[in-house]
């Protein structure tokens, strides 16, 4: 026969028994959710930027600017020779570029450096100042000074051809300006070829006086030998 007291104790212990723990809920913040929303945000951002660039390229149809060498002017010239008959030339030359912008928007160029190369090696440097090309401009003149220091002319003139082939090259940072907005920076790679008859240069340099002008007739035509490459 069951004891009523023990039955009451059993019911009481059952009544006050702790309930079972519910299943663990997923935390509100997790690494997976963070990565998911981050990737989604990045994809949306890339899509928006791509759409804007597509619209800009579609409506503006940007074209490469045009540069040509316009004039050269010798500001200073010095010829030095060693006892071993090695001739060194030092000079400061003013270089004028003519810039043309066929685009519907203006282009702003940052200060930069271009290099005077011979045989792929730099022999001089020129600093191009900041300048602005208005839309559809054709006659923007850019002035810079090319500095040549102790260039070994004897080593250059070892061949029979008196004409030396030089290269003017460098990267110029630029931005398209549209409706008071400045678009991302691009780089314009300038590459010009110059042919110089060193015998004529030396003959002028020996009798050099300040502000003497080296006319374009002293050099073979080179205004059409400039090329540009645009990249980001």
Automatic annotation (TrEMBL):
Protein location: Membrane
Biased composition (Polar residues): 1-10
Segments crossing the lipid bilayer: 34-60, 80-99
Span list, region Disordered: 1-22
Annotated keywords: Membrane, Transmembrane, Transmembrane helix
InterPro entries associated with the record: LEA_2, NDR1-like
Membrane topology: Single-pass membrane protein
Gene Ontology cellular component list: plasma membrane
Record-level GO BP terms: defense response to other organism
Record-annotated Late embryogenesis abundant protein LEA-2 subgroup domain positions: 99-185
Keyword Membrane annotated: yes
Identification of the protein by name: Late embryogenesis abundant protein LEA-2 subgroup domain-containing protein
Classification of source organism: Eukaryota, Viridiplantae, Streptophyta, Embryophyta, Tracheophyta
């Amino acid at each position: 026969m069951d004891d009523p007291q023990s039955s009451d104790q059993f019911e009481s212990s059952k009544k006050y028994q702790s309930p079972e723990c519910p299943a663990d809920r997923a935390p509100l913040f997790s690494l997976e959710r963070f990565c998911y929303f981050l990737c989604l945000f990045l994809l949306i951002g890339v899509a928006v930027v791509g759409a804007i660039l597509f619209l800009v390229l579609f409506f503006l149809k940007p074209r490469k600017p045009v540069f040509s060498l316009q004039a050269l002017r010798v500001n200073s010239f010095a010829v030095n020779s060693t006892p071993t008959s090695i001739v060194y030339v030092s000079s400061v030359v003013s270089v004028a570029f003519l810039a043309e912008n066929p685009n519907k928007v203006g282009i702003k160029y940052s200060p930069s450096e271009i290099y005077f190369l011979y045989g792929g090696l730099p022999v001089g440097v020129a600093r191009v100042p900041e300048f602005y090309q208005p839309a559809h401009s054709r006659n923007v003149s850019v002035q810079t000074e090319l500095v040549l220091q102790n260039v070994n002319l004897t080593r250059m003139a070892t061949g029979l051809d008196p004409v030396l082939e030089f290269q003017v090259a460098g990267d110029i940072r630029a931005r398209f300006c549209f409706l008071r907005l400045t678009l991302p920076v691009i780089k314009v790679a300038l590459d010009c070829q110059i042919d110089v008859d060193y015998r004529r240069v030396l003959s002028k340099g020996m009798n050099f006086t300040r502000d003497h002008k080296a006319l374009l007739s002293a050099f073979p035509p080179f205004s059409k030998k400039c090329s540009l490459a645009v990249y980001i």
